[in-house]
Amino acid sequence: MTSCFPDDPIYRGFDAPGRVEANVFDLEVEGRVPPELDGTFFRVAPDPQWPPMLGHDIFFNGDGMVCAFRFKDGRVDFTSRYAQTDKFVAERQARKALYGAYRNPYTDDPSVAGSIRSTANTNVIVHHGLLLALKEDSPPVAMRPDTLETIGNYRFGDKMTSETFTAHPKVDPVSGELIAFGYSAKGVATSDLAYYVIDRHGEVVHEAWFTAPRAASIHDFAVTENYVVFPVGSLEIETERLKAGKPAFVWRPDVEQIYGVLPRRGNAEDMRWFTVPTNGFQGHTINAWDDGHKVYVDMPMLNDNAFWFYPDENGHAPHPSTLKQTMTRWIFDLSSNSVTPQMDIIPAPMGEFPHIDERYATRPYRHAFLAVIDPTAPYDFQRCGPPSVNAFLNGLAHVDMTTGASRRWLPGPTSTVQEPVFAPRSPDSPEGDGYVIALVNRLDEMRSDLVVLDAQHIDEGPVATIRLPLRLRNGLHGNWVPSSAMRPPVPA
Are 88 and 82 in contact (CB under 8 A)? Predict the structure, then answer.
């Protein structure tokens, strides 16, 4: 490499690009890995292979580094591989960055004009034998779940006609259906959405197209047994801004919240739009369910814009200390003529990156697990230096969504955490009986640990700490996949 990464916070300290593809067999373990854990924890992180083409960038624009932690017989093996997207391959051949600003094709090198811009860096799921690396501005990138070998761009037998695919599809635990959508489905900054139901074999069995009230980010959504809910965000995207070289999204502080509720096999004419007069920043969906005519959606909500790198039209972004979070339950009454959902507040610690016992996805549930944000917890600046990208994620919590009671574990003043996932103790264990698995950033050692905690006794700390001999940059999302759900990949 003939140039260096810029001296920006997202490229130094714990979040300096790692760029390491590795195999580590039989990782060191402190404590005891529960032998009943038989499966793989997949996760992905933005990890740029080249310095940014324009001299600066945002954290979300790194190439997707996929990691697999394979649990078997009380032992854990580790593999990391880049998702070899079209972008990755073109830039590796050129030995430099060719793609410009995040979500802005107008800034790309002419040699890659019109190509798929995916970094495949936001989430990884396993469905019908494929590992799908996801970025919401592009189709999935298929990989082999056993080796992490890249297969290529994937459109479900060419039946997916949208240009985009969500990074947060949902799997129905009963039918095995993959429920998904794409926003900006006809191209950058369009308000078109495409909605998909994909059966357990990877066949598209339902497709519907509709137009959102505004061209905006819809990062996550909610799915119940009978409905889907689309939260239309307040981060809007406009073609003229992109052509002018401005950030892809702009925060609109004065717009209302919008939620679209659609039957799972519905079409555009079946959509019902609900609005909330006050603005808010919608977090990741925890879970959702319905009881016939009412649809319930649980998610953390912030009072203002969490993404400082997408300020409002005047360049203003709120200071993090002014952000206030509520764990919110939205209730959409489909038997009522009201267009405003009911809002209930669930007493819970501040937190994000929620996961549940996925056996209860789309159904009534009780247990949630999340990375907590505790601004009162001590942080050792002298030993750790300036906080990394996710310095505010400094603990793990189990929340009883029925009572609001919670337990939490903090890893200490020199550590932060990444997104936790839940693994059941056994296929037939009660809801929430199992283990929470999460990466811990050892900031003073510039190294990562993977911790395993008893989900119902999370406050007692790890039952196993799996030591990595390397640093894993802060990631975005991942999932636990039991071995019983793994099978040979289907042809792409």
Answer: yes
Question: Token pair of 411, please?
Answer: 């890893």
Lowest mean pLDDT among 2-6, 101-105, 252-256: 2-6
Cβ 141 vs Cβ 278: under 8 Å: no
Confidence of residue 391 (pLDDT cuts 50, 70, 90): low
Q: Is the pTM of this model over 0.85?
A: yes
What digits encode the pLDDT tens for the residues 480-492?
A: 999 999 876 555 4
What length is written for the chain?
492
- Both tokens of residue 471? 């640093």
Going by C-alpha positions, the residue among 476, 479, 423, 436 that lies closest to residue 178 is 479
User: Is the pLDDT reported for residue 184 higher than 80?
Assistant: yes
Which residue, chain included where needed, has tokens 């693994």?
423
Tell me the average pLDDT across 406-430: 97
**Beta-strand pair 447-454/227-232:** unpaired
Tell me the CA distances in angstroms from 97 to 10, 92, 150, one per residue in order: 17, 8, 20
Terminal Cα-to-Cα distance of the chain (whole angstroms): 34
- Among 210, 302, 294, residue whose Cα is nearest residue 251: 302
Q: What's the CA dihedral at 81, 85, 86, 92 to 10 degrees?
A: -20
Provide CB contacts within 8 A for 89, sequence distance 6+.
none
Q: Which residue type sits at 369? A: F
Tokens linked to 441: 């950033």
* Sign of the alpha-carbon torsion through 46, 195, 225, 331: positive
Q: What is the pLDDT of residues 7-18, one digit of tens each?
A: 998 999 999 999
